[in-house]
Each structure stands twice: as C-alpha cells, then as structure tokens.
C-alpha cells in the first residue's frame, strides 16, 4: 500500500515530484484495475495538472472518489445504469476540499447502487474470490491494492469501516459531518457520513487533517489510556475470527499498559440499533423518490427490497425511530464516561467469499446513528490470511482521540502479531 | 389569491376539472408574470399531464417550485448565471412528494443566487416598487399574486417567513426536515429547511398534510390556548409597523380568551442567534466551494461578501457555534414550557422599498437554528396598505399545533381588523 505520510515526506524532501507520485498511482491503476475493478472512471490529465500546480499539504497525493460523490470533470454514475454517463455541474464540497489541499483526483471508485447493498464488480485485493465489502467497495479496494494513498467513501450503515476491515486498510468515519456532504448523492440525510480510507491510521489522520485544517494530533494523556470493550450483543454474534481480532486488540492494549474495562451498552443503544433501518430506508424512500417512482426497472434487487419495505413505515414509526436515535445520542455521553475510547468488531468476520454480498453492517450502524468517530484498525488476519479489523470509537467531536487510540493499537498489534 | 382548500373542494365536487384548475394558474402566470417576474421557467404540458392523471389529494393543485430545487423536466438555475440552462437528472424528493400527491408542477420560481441575499428581478405583488423579500422571492410573490395556490421555498435564515410576511401570504417553515432536502441546492446543511407558501394558514396545513401524509389537524385543547410573546431583544428593534402587528395579534388572542404571557428568551438564544451566521456561512463555504473557487467572477456581491467573511472562521469558532446551537435547542424545551405556542415578529417591518435588498432575517434566524415550526400569519397592514405578518412558533415536531394556533390567530385578526 502507499503511505500518504511517507509519500508526502518524499515530495517535501524533493525526492519525488508531485506529478510522479500521481503517475505512480495512474500506473498502478492501469496495471491492476482490469482485475480488481476498483475504478469506474479516471482523469489522468486532471490529476497531473493539479499536481503540477504544486501547492497544499496533499500536493502529489492521488485520491480515489466514491462514485456517488459529484465531480465536474468526471462522470458520476451512482453505481446505477440510471446515471450512466451523467456529468454533474459542480464538484462536491469534499472533492473541492481535496483540490484546495492540492490533491490529484485520479478517478471515481466503484460503489453499490446508490450506496446501498447491491454489489459492484469490484474484487477484494487480498483475495479476488472475496467481496471487498461495500458500499464504498472501490475506495477500499483501491487503497488496499496500493493504487492510491487515499480514497473517499461514505457510510450510512457500515460502508466505510466494513470494507476497510475486509480489505485490510485503515479508515475513519469521522464525527457526523466533519466532512461536507453537499454534492454527495443522498440516501439518508441524517446518517450519511463521508469518510476516508488510507494505508495506515497515521495516513488517515494526515489526510483528514489536511482536508479539514484541523489539528488531529491525539491529545497527550499523561497516563495509560482507558479503553472500553463492547460486543454489541443486540446485534447478534460475531464469527470466531472477529472475536479473535478483538481479543488480540485487548491483549495488545494490555501489553501496552492500557486499562481495559467491559462496557455494557445502555438499553437506548439496542433500541436505536434496531430502528436504524427505519431512519435509513425511510429517508431513502424520500431521497431516492425520483429513481424509485420513475426508474424502477433499473433499480437492483437489494435496494428495491429495502425501499419496498420502507413504504410500510408510518410517520409515527419514523418519528419514533428519530426519537430513539436522539435518546441513544444522549445516552452515549454516559457510555463513554471515564473512557478514552471504546473498541468493538469492525465486521462480523473476514470478507465473505463471492461477490454476491458486501457483508453485514450490524456492528457499524449504531455508531453511524450516534454520529461518533469510528476508525478501522487493520493488522489482524484469519487463518486464510484475510484481514479482520478492529473498530475504535470515541465521543462525538473527538476524532483526534479516536485516531490517536487507533494508531496506538495499530502499532501495538504490529508488535504482538 | 387561490385557496388550495377551496380549489380542492371544487375539484372533488366535480365543479372544476383538475386540468382547468391548472390552466387557471397558467393563465394567471401568463397575464401577470411579465410584470412580477415570479417565474423563471414553466412547464404547462407537464403540469396538465399530471392533472389529467387524476389521483391524489393535490390533483389539480398548481405548485411553483423555488429554482434551487431540482426538477428533471425544467431547468434549475439556482438564481445564478453559473447554472444557466442547467437540467438536473432527477426531481428533488420534495418535488416527487408533490407529484405523488397528484400536484401539477407548473414552474420554477425566482430565487436569490444560491438562496442567499442578492435579489432577483421579482416584484412584490402588493406594491411593485417593493421587494417581495427573499430568498424564496418568486414563490411568495406567485402565491401572493394569485398565480398558484401553493409554492415551495427554503429557509436558512428567514427565507420563507420573511417573504411571506412581505407578500401577505401564509407560510410554514416546518420542523427541521419534515420535508425532504435531497435534490435541493445546499447552502447550510444544518439550517436549510424546505417550506410552503399558501393563501391562508388552512391552505398551508392542507398542503403540508397532503405532502407528508401526516394528520396536521390541530390537537383540541379543551381550554384557552396559552400564548407566549417574545420580542427577541438580542436581534435589535422592530419597526412600529411590526410592533403594531404583534400588538394586534395579542389583542386578537386576548379577545378570543387566550392567555398571553411575556416570555423572556433564555441567554442561550441570544448566543445562538449571534452565531447563526458562523454556522450558515461557514457551511456555505464548503457547500458552495466549487462555485466560490472556480466561478468567482459570476458570484454576486452579497453572497461573495458572506463567503469572503466566512473564510476567517476557524474550526474552533465553527465548532463553538454548533455547540451554541445545540445548547439553544436544549434550552428551547424550557422556553416553550407551559405554552402552546409563542408569537414574535415575522420581519422587522413591511417590505422595504426598492429591489436592492430582500430585507433582514434577524427575527427568523434563531428559530431556523432551533429547528422549530414557524408559521407566518398574514392579515395586518401598515398605513400604506403593505402586509405585515406575525410569526407563530411551537416546539419541535408540533407543526400541527403551530398551524392550529396560527389559523386561530388568522381568523381572530380577520374579525378584529
């Protein structure tokens, strides 16, 4: 994989020209994407031109952009035949943040249709017979395959953290709306959250800081970190591989002197977890009304099933789900109380075999609804060598803490693994 | 003006064909819009075709749609030369709600550029020498001039309630996101709220109920309503005309036996009020980054000034403004405690003369930030005969109460005026 931090250091030291850094990515895409299908469009000229301009912390950094995120210079097809050849007028706010930081937007990455669950053709770079996860399939695969140092995704259920776990890359789903959402095709307006894939947690932190102008260096604790562990029993069980990764994380933290406590989820979390689909699909039915009402034959099966089911949601049920979400966000203050961060599964297990499913978001959706920062920490593998991530969460707005704890875990895992 | 309720009754009684109801609006537009400039695009054929389909509670109801709201069958120009001739791919969720309810989307209404403050050419139907207000200028004028029974607008500061007050029409800015926002050009993602203009409060309630499938009949109180009065001293002073309208509303309520209490705004409200522009323009700088960074010569002066100023907002200041907003939303529970609704000014006074300014949102922006339902009640006039509205607010989610209290006030004013 390409480390954005290492690449940036070489560029700053003038060991590498920004254009050459972009060119490396374009070559890697040309070499591997026939097999991986991570990209659905590229703009080599545009990316090289940005690199040549030579300014900003991301100058020379190639970025892949999930294809539900508008780009004025490339098609934005939403993973759907309905939008084949569609060219938006403007770049999304997030794309502009990247351009202003000097990045080269090399291409658009494959997404499930409208960021739901119908898989694109993308394969997992760790094993071509397995799904890369979704809905940000192409972005996770592109970083995992070493095509680009950074890629953008979005998460409504688990569409950033899960594919990152499956592809063995770091990723952050930041606090709700730390990254701008304008110009990103909406599924659920109160859940959709833009996020970032990178080779390592430090690379993700570097990218997020460069995009947002925020200092994301983890606050110095001056003591051992206090880490909560939660297994989200309301979400059902995890596979032994996920449990093994979580245990490895606990052991690695303990080895570092961190204090580890089991933290029970309050009952508000279980209620919110179970109502997440009511908010998500209830809002999607309104966001995607044009597609659903006028283009139905082109809507693939999984999103069609979700939207059909959503037609039965009453206004009362929808309002109650929103209230349950709010109660859970209030309860989150107590949940994190006295802890620096909490760890849980990133996904139920390693990437499932086959390309028919992008896997389950059951261990992610609560945290998306809470709006708290979530980081996938790679480093563990199952017996077949497939990556299995661990998820680190911190309270709302403490993205720096989430990244700091995650970086510490990543390092600890690399020593104990 | 055209009452949607009365029109619907005639259509249901088969006294009027839905197509003829739409045709009346098209004729009214043809007759008056050369002078008023409320519309920037129309689609007679499309609207008549919807009417002919003959289903839904809004069948035969002509709707004007603010031109920042995407329509697949008409241009969507955002009030900006940048988007001249732009045709979105899909209808916005809100437009689809209207179509599903059987409405005829007759045209797109003039908006300030990107729903900020640079005036379009629209005139006030009550006096052509005055502004209709903004940013939903065309929608307020179209309803006020009797061109359409219903029109859609959006409010980030005061862009629904203020133009309604200036044009002498009823309007509701519902609870935050009661109406869907997907496909509406974003200025501020945490403030932008879609709303509805209508001839009377009852017409607005009818339209909102038809769009949302919600029962918006006001709950029966079984006692005299308890109305709070707040003058928002932190926002500066109102003109005598606005004070006179508020006094008339108080007198009308008292005449009806309502109990009236002065309600001081908590200090959290003043803080949130003063930080509204930090959230609004801070978010706009990211939402409109493409336009601002790549099309600057085409950005008009007022929005340019706002975005230039927003460049100085630090992440810390932005986060603090968001927190202040949250504190104010918590404080709103206590503010409304024991009251059915609160009344205040809809605008500082009647519509200013000239078309150089759309007026001030200073008495609206707090309530937009709180996300509570706001209704403009028409009925009062100044010495020149220009309309001056009164604003009714209720707690979040109590849109039915806000509309019920507003309808009562509208009726009471009609008796005492």
Provide an overview of this structure.
The structure is a homodimer of 417-residue chains. The first copy, chain A, is α/β, with parallel strands linked by helices. The first copy, chain A, has one domain: Amidase signature (AS) enzymes. In chain A, 41% of the residues lie in helices and 14% in strands. Chain A has helices spanning 4-12, 18-36, 44-53, 93-100, 137-144, 161-167, 201-212, 240-255, 267-287, 289-294, 301-310, 315-336, 365-370, 399-416; strands at 39-42, 62-66, 104-109, 150-155, 170-173, 193-198, 226-229, 259-262, 341-345, 374-381, 387-393. The first copy, chain A, has an 11-stranded mixed β-sheet, with helices on both faces. In chain A, helix 2 packs antiparallel against helix 3 (44-53) and helix 9 (267-287) packs across helix 12. The mean pLDDT of chain A is 97. The A-B interface holds A 72, 82-83, 86, 89-93, 95-97, 99-100, 177, 180-183, 186, 189-190, 212-214, 283, 286-291, 293-294, 315, 319, 397 and B 72, 82-83, 86, 89-93, 95-97, 99-100, 177, 180-183, 186, 189-190, 212-214, 283, 286-291, 293-294, 315, 319, 397.
